[in-house]
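seq as requested:
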Amino acid sequence: MPAPRSPCALCDADGGRLVLRTPTLRVVHAGEAAFPGFYRVVWHAHVAEFSDLSPADRSLCMEAVVQTEQALRAHLGPDKVNLASLGNMVAHLHWHVVARFAWDTHFPAPVWAAAVREAPADALADLAARLPALEAELRERLARL
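struct tokens:
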């Protein structure tokens, strides 16, 4: 059952730089400078929990998360991909899909932890340069869903 509508950052805005919008969901680049490979899969309808979705919508949502993860792996070659659907601050269903690298500012801790090092500028620039191709492939992948 959908949560009651109240002011919601993900109902009122995309939640990042829009990569793709479908009738049911969108994928956005989070715009976190220390994490160029940080994307969100956002369900359009205002629901708080994954279990609020029908079985078919859950399947579609998770397939979008999987396709996002696979595109990150193919284009960025991360050491790990983190998936999270917390919603503690924004109670609107969305998944964080984050490419992680042993050199990143927080690794191996979560992206929300305190930084433990500076990220190499050349590595960040290299990842940023790969994003257009990653996002083009991601749009192709998600258009097939």
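Residues 9-134 form a domain with the HIT family, subunit A fold (CATH 3.30.428.10).
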